[in-house]
Structures are given as C-alpha cells and as structure tokens.
Amino acid sequence: MATPATPLGRFWITYKESKVGVVALGVVAVILVVAILAPLIAPQDPYDLSRLSLMDARRAPGHIGTGGYTHLLGTDAQGRDLLSAILYGLRISAQMGLVAGIVGLSIGATLGISAAYIGGRTEALLMRTVDLQLSFPPILLALVLVALLGQGKAQLITALVAAQYAYFARTAYGAATAERRKDYIEAAYGTPLSRRRIVFRHLLPNCMPPLIVVATVQIANSIALEATLSFLGLGLPVTEPSLGMLISNGFKYMMSGRYWISVYPGIALIILIVSINLVGDRIRDQLNPRLRR
Amino acid sequence: MLGYFIQRCLQAILVMLVMSVIVFVGVYAIGNPMEVLIPPDAPQDVRNFIIARFGLDRPLWEQYLTFLGNVFVGDFGYSFVYNMPVLDLILSRLPSTLELALTAVLGAALIGVPLGVYAGYRPNAVSSHTIMSLSILGFSVPTFWVGLILILTFAVSLGWLPAGGRGETVTLWGVEWSFLTANGWSHLFLPAINLALFKMAMMIRLARAGTQEAMLTDTVKFARAAGLSEATIVLRHVLKLISIPIITVFGLELGSTLAFAVVTETIFSWPGLGKLIIDSITNLDRPVMVAYLILVALLFMTINLVIDLIYAALDPRLSRGGA
Amino acid sequence: MSEPLLQVAGLSTQFHTQAGVVKAVSDVSFSLERGQILGLVGESGSGKSVTGFSLLGLVDPPGRIAEGSIRFDGQELVGMPQPDLRALRGKRIAMVFQDPMMTLNPVLSVGTQMTLAVRAHDKVSKQMARDRAVEALTRVGIPDAGHRLDAYPHQFSGGMRQRVAIAIAMIHSPDIIIADEPTTALDVSIQAQILHEMRELAKDSGTALIWISHDLATVSSLAERLLVMYAGTIVEEGPTARVLRNPRHPYTRGLLDSLPATAPPGQNLQQIPGSMPSLLALPPGCAFAPRCSFASEVCNGDVPYLVTGPSAFRCHHPIGEAK
Q1: Which candidate, B193, B170, B180, places its Cα nearest to that of B100?
Q2: Do A270 and B145 touch (CB under 8 A)?
Q3: Is the pLDDT of residue A5 over 70?
C-alpha cells in the first residue's frame, strides 16, 4: 500500500494501530451524529412542556406512556422520556464542550504565541498571570464566574473558557518559545520576512500538535465542568436540561430506588467524556517522540 | 535572596488587592440581597434599618474601603443569612472541611503512590495496565458522578454506610471532629473516597512516571550491580528519588482539595466550607462569598509563594533577576 | 593450569525490538585469570558495555543472552536464577560506571548508599556498615572520610565522586571489577590519578579488572591483555605489548593509526573510512569488510577465530607477521 499523501492520511495510519483509540474515536463519532440528529430520532421533544404528562412521571424503564410508545430508559420527574432527554442533553454537552474548547484554544493560543513572539515585559506579565491562574482550581474559578455572571449559555461558556484558556496559553507558549530558540527563526528575524509570516508559517504550525492534544482533553474537561456546575444548580437554565441537570434532578429520587433518572444520563456522560479522553491519550502517545519505536 | 523574598511578597500583596477589588465589585454586582433579607411586606422603617445596619446605602467604593479596613482586623462583616460574624461562620465550618480534605489527600497518597510505583516498576504487567486504566477513569469521571454511584451502591443498595452528614463528633481543642468516633468514620468514609479518587489517579500517574524514569537510570543499574535486592532498590533509592515532586504536588493538592470539596460536600451534605459557599451563592449571602473567595485566594497565594521560595532556595539561578 | 577465574565461551546477547533483532554481542569468548587486568576496547556501539552487563546478568529487557556460557569460579552464570546472581553481584563481581553523577543517587547521602551496599550482602549492624564505609573511602584516598559520610554526591568533585563509586564497588573485595569507561567523564589529570589508584588497589587486593574503554591509549597503559571488539565480535586479542606493536587485524591497525601519539606532528590523523554497520543488519561474514582495504570475496563467508598461543584474531587477511 502506498503512503497516503495527506498529513491526515498519514496520521490515521499510525492512529489506527491502537484498537482502544479506534473504538473510542468511533464512539465519539456516533455520539456526535446522534447529538446532531437528536430532534429527528428522539421519540419526544423534551423541551415542549405541553407534550409532557405528569401521568408519566418517574416511570421505570420499559413503561408504555400516554404517548403510546415505550419509554426505553424510563421517565423523569416531569414525565419526560429519558432517552429523548439524554439525546438532547448530549447535544447540549457536546455543543458546550466544543464551543468552550475552540474559543479557549483561540484565545489561549493567541496569548501564548504573542507572549513568546513579543517577549520582554509583555511576555513576563502575560505568562505570570497565566501561571497564577493555573495554580487556581478551574472548578472554583468557573463557580465564582457563574455566580457573578448569572445563568445562561453565554455566561456558562465564558466561565468555561476563563477556567481553561490558561492551559492552552501555557502549551502554546511552551511550544512557541522552544521553536523561537531554533536557529531558523533567529535567522528569519534578521531577514525582511514579514512578521506575520514568521508567526503563521513557523510558530503556529509547530504549536498545533501539542495544542490539539490539550484541546481534546480540555473539551472533555469542559463537558465535565459544565455537568458539575449544572449538577450544583449553577449551570444552564432549567429550560435547557443538560446531562448534569438531569442527574441532579434525579438525585433526590435515588434514595427511594428510582435510580434510572440519574444513572442513565450519567452513563451517557461518562461514555462521552471517557471516549474523548481516550482519543486524546492516543493522540498524545502518537505525538510523543519518546514512545515511538 | 532577601530581595527576591520581598519582591515576591509585594507581588503577592498586589495580586491580593486586585483580587479583593474584583471579588468585591463582582459579588456586589449580582442580585439584590435586600429582596432576600427583607420581607416584601416589611414597613419602610424596618427596611431602612436593615439597609443601614448592613451599610448597603453607601456608595460602592466606600463600602469597599470599609470592608478592606475591617478585613485587616479580621472582620469580614455579618452574614446576611446566618446573622453571625462571617469569620466565625467560616472558622466554624473549616474543621470539617479540613478533616475531609486531609483524610482524602492522605488516603490518596497512601494508596496511590504504592500503586503508581508498582505500575512503574512493572509497566507491562496486566495488573499495571489495570491500575492505569482505573487512573484514566479516576481522571475522566466527574467527582459528582462518582459520589452518586457511591451513595447508590453503599448507602441505598447495600445500606452499609450513611449517605450524608457528619455523624457523631467528639470535641477536641474546642472543635468537633468526626474521625474520633466509629460512627463519625462511617460518615467520613464515602465522602473521603469520593474526594480522594481524583487525587489518587494523579498520584498514581506521578509515581508511575517517576518510577519508570528512575528504573532506567544508571543509579538503579549501579545499585543492582552492587547486589542490592529489588525491594531495597525500590524502597530506598527509587522512592527517595520520586519523593520531591510527589511532596510538592501533595502540598499543592491539599489546597485544591478544599476547592473540590465543594462538590463532594454538596452531595454528601457534609457541613463544611464547600457547602457553605454553594448555599451562599444560592442565597446571595454576599459577605460570606467575598470572605470565602478572599480567603481561598490568600491560601493559594501563600502556597504558591512558599513553593516559589523553596525552589528559589534550592536553585540559586532562580533567585536572581526573576521577572 | 587450573581453571581460570572467568571463562566466557560463545556468548551472544540479543535485543528483540520491533525493528528486528539487535545482535549486540555475537560469539564472544575470552578468559580472565585471578588478579589480571584485561582491556576491552571498541568504539561506542561495539558491544563492549553489553558484554560487561551480560557478565553480571544485568541485561535490560528486551535484551537477553541468546547463547554461550559464562563460567565463574566453577559456576555457570548463564541461566543462573536471579537471587543467586544477586548474591554474586557486588560481592564477587562488581561494576563501576562511566558517569558518577548519574550512578550515585543524588538524594541519598554517600554513607547511606554505602551502608546499603554493605548490608546487601553482610547482615551487619548499621554502625559496622558505616565503619566499613569509612574504611573503604579512606582506602580510595578520600580525606576525612568519617565526616564526608553524611555529605551528598553533589558536594563532591567529579573525581571524588568516582572514588566513592569505586569504594562502593570494592567494599566487599570482589574477585572481579568491571570498569565501564570509569574515567571518560573526568578531567585528564584526574583520569591519570584514578587509573593509577585503581591499578594499585587491584594489585593490593588481588582483584581482577575488566577495563572497558573506547580509548586505546588509556587501556593500554593499564591492561596486561587487550580484547578489541567490533560490531559485537572480538576481532583481536593478545598481550597488550604485542597488539600495540604488531596488530594483526586491519581494524586494530586502524584504531592505532587514529591515535594522536602515533602520527608525526603536523600531519593529519589517519581515519577509518565509513562507519560501523547497524547491529540490526550485520553483513554476512566479516562485519569490518565494507570498510577494509584488504577485503576480498572470502570475507563475505564465515571468518574463523584463529588462536595461536596467547594471541587470537578473526581475519582472512591478517597484516603484520606471526611470531
């Protein structure tokens, strides 16, 4: 077989050596497809309160509800079909994770690369701030911000980004300074090569591999953080039940044995987070030159 | 060294001041606490009395300066909800959180380090792969979810352990402690495990990476060439080699455990600081929020400062010309 | 004549990696008498260090001794269980490594490291072990040894550190010390000192030395016999004076010609063209043939090891003359 010409193709050749990595990637892909198609495949629109009936509330898995179809995973306290709620919840979780990850990546990478490129006092100030923030637990930071900003999607994303951008900045800064010290960048400084060219042609591409690894991990972390905040009642508003809130709502019924309201959304959440982390682990191993034989 | 010390302390004080302004302004910008405090049907003079009592009628900067002045003498004001001095409130909740956090971090280290050393010593053994998979789970699975599963399994299904509260306490040095009674331990056990799992995953990874690296060094080869037994090599040479980073992280983690306790305390109704802050956020109890955030910031600043200074003392290159 | 102290026959050590089998040592045979000093010379990657580790049974996985025999004082070391090997290591066969900065544990005091080495074989009290450590340090010329026992490796100079390592190796008065480039990391003046001291120590205690080095000049000032290794095999062996004066293998000749001392001042040193073949893909027959100006068709077939009296070489086209 010929070596594929595209970088992505070459990447895939080595990536698929790990069975766990391939399975995890498959799971992530399936979840994403399901999340996108949720309105089409879910038996019920869980946001449409007029369609909910309290007659169906807290029914065990397999119950045939007033809607005339089977609630495969049971129903919650409002009579929502849990399967539908989970599909919509995955949609929100994945959305929050991706948006927070991408925004965090953009802000963090810009800061990190700028610090490395500009140097001097700016570098010192930026990186000290980042380091200071890194020493602070992200969950506490997000908690405070949500408390200060109030509830809502935009507020939550702001909190998630604020809690995570520093990791991207650190990573980008580390990769960019290592690259800056190399001779060819020194040489490029001396030539009339445009500054933009140095940044976009040399610094940025070399920062990308470690940033991709961090991004994978941070998307998983964002999803977990969002779920935690929602569980604590500080996440999204009640009209948009994310997985964390479904779990939180079910918590009080757990003691009386109605485990499914919390447990099924939780399992969906864990599968999502663990598979993203496994994909991240695989990419990291692949990019780690020390583990290459 | 002294110059560096002073410079770093000044920096820390500056950061704390900035933090206090942000926290104060931020916290006081949300909601209107008077709606919580004053019944809607209260007469105007009661309303005015309460407003004046809490100093809410004065401009924000004046409130801040008063606040700052009071903070220096340890006065964080009165809690709107509990109607007691905030510092007393926080101090009364601190022991239970400390008890939980210390148990969790100690447990994580005592279990995590040996597992990690083992996994690093035999990186290809099946048991090591199992340990590492579990540590990935420990990293990935959100704390609140683990807490729920613990309750569902051990409290609801098996009925072995209680699902919340502190249980019986014994008073020592004027403070109530759960770890001195068997019943207290039964209450402490699940939340401590919940809080410990993430730390344990971290300790396992650290210890494994350190051990794996140490086993490849000439130090270990030389010790083997001198005929030392594998047990002596691991227990005396390797453990000592990996101990410095582990102790550093241990110290850092003790700080962040206080923060993570927020989630665990909520789930297990553990009456500590974390539960207090969540309640304060929902009740808009501003003085408690401000005091908590400032104290936590102070805690982290102190930990960072101490670590920086220790490193500076160890590495003379760092103490000169730091940015 | 009785059996020699150490008799190595047909030793082959291989590393099974994903890329293939690395034949680090192939068919190595030699013997060592009590109190003898043997020099093992070759460039890096020639298999001399792996030979040393094979003798101690300390080849790291994925490496293993594929075939051959190592007889030491009447016992077969190949296939000997690890606990029995461990009892020999440090007690009867010791080893000194290249860089004392890497071999000594930076976070354990010298005294601790030495007492660990003593107590690995002799169940004596800590105080007894310390006394023996002081004695050993004094013997290698460390002044005020009693006080230096509590110092850490970084508080010693490079030469002193290597003396500590040598003291650890000699602490049980072993029959053999394998010294793997022990002076390479040191200053030239210190090199000479250590070289001299080790020779004296070996003579006094009747210890045999296997001195591994890439530096022909250093080894020849010390060793009674030389073994020249190339690509995992011994290409020439003989009394030091004979090998230096009348080398039979073209590779030995090349090594000698590249020494600064042999070239007239102002002239370029001779080089051996090309580089050593990969141990993953050794050519059939003589591994040196591709770089050899005397090579012919026969060199691609098996090359026998021709032993005549105290000398031996592995070449179809020997240079110089037999005596």
Answers
A1: B193
A2: yes
A3: no
Retrieve residue C99's tokens: 């860089």
Whether residue A6 is contained in a domain is answered as no
Residues B120-132 pLDDT 10s: 888 888 888 888 8
ipTM: 0.85
Look at residue A55 in the predicted model and tell me its pLDDT: 64
Q: Do B136 and A277 touch (CB under 8 A)?
A: yes
Q: What does the alpha-carbon distance between residue A198 and residue A209 come to, in Å, rounded to a whole number?
A: 18
Distance of CA A72 to the CA centre of its chain: 28
Question: Half-sphere exposure of B76 toward its Cβ, with a 13 Å CA cutoff?
Answer: 24
> What's the burial of B72, exposed, middle or buried (CB within 10 Å: 0-12/13-18/19+)?
exposed
In a domain, B220, yes or no: yes
Entry field: residues in chain B: 323
List the CATH number of the domain containing B237. 1.10.3720.10
Q: Which of A223, A278, A242, A226 is nearest to A87 (CA)?
A: A242
Pair of tokens at residue A97 = 């994770």
The domain tally of chain C equals 1
- What pairs with residue A71 in β-bridges? A63
Residue type at C13 in one-letter notation: T
Enumerate the residues of chain C whose CB falls inside 8 A of the CB of residue A293.
Answer: 17-19
Quote the domain boundaries for residue C315.
Answer: 224-260+270-323
- Cross-chain residue pair C116–B229, CB shorter than 8 Å: no
Q: Strand, helix or coil at C69? A: strand
Task: Please report how many Cα atoms fall inside a 13 Å half-sphere around the Cα of residue A186, on the Cβ side.
Answer: 4
Q: Is B244 on the interface with C (CB under 8 A)?
A: yes
The CA distance from C56 to A9, in Å, is 47
> Does C314 have pLDDT greater than 80?
yes
- Closest of B80, B83, B86 to residue B36, by C-alpha: B80
Closest Cβ opposite residue B227 in set C86, C97, C105: C86
CB < 8 Å to A148, chain B: 26-27, 29-30
User: Pseudo-torsion of CA A154, A157, A162, A164, nearest 10°?
Assistant: -170
Reference A276, options A10, A26, A18; nearest CA is A26
Quote the pLDDT of residue A56: 64
Residues 6+ apart with CB under 8 A from A158: A145, A149
Q: State which residues form the domain around B224.
A: 86-282
Which 8-state DSSP code applies to residue B123? T
What burial letters (b/e) apply to C181-192, b meaning 16+ CB within 10 Å? bbbebbeeebbe
Cis peptide before C62 (omega within 30 of 0): yes
Q: Is residue A200 part of a domain?
A: yes
Q: Is B224 on the interface with C (CB under 8 A)?
A: yes
> What residues contact C5, with CB distance under 8 A and at least 6 apart?
C32, C33, C34, C36, C72, C73, C175, C176, C208
* A66 band by pLDDT with thresholds 50, 70 and 90: low
Of A128, A139, A257, the CB nearest to B262: A139
In a domain, C298, yes or no: yes
The Cα-based distances of C286 to A97, C238, C277, C295 in angstroms read 62, 19, 11, 9
Q: Do B263 and A254 lie within an 8 Å CB cutoff? A: no
B-contacting residues of A 167-226, CB under 8 Å?
Answer: 220, 224
Task: Give the distance from residue B110's alpha carbon to the nearest chain A alpha carbon, in angstroms.
Answer: 23
Establish if B204 belongs to a structural domain: yes
Query: How long, in residues, is chain A?
Result: 293
pTM of the model as a whole:
0.76
Mutate to test the interface with C, among B221, B239, B244 (most CBs of C within 10 A): B221
Nearest CB to B229 within list C86, C103, C106: C86
pLDDT at C269 over 50: yes
Residue A209 belongs to domain spanning: 19-291
Q: Give Rg (Cα) of chain B.
A: 24
Q: For residue A12, tell me if it sits in a domain.
A: no
In a domain, B64, yes or no: no
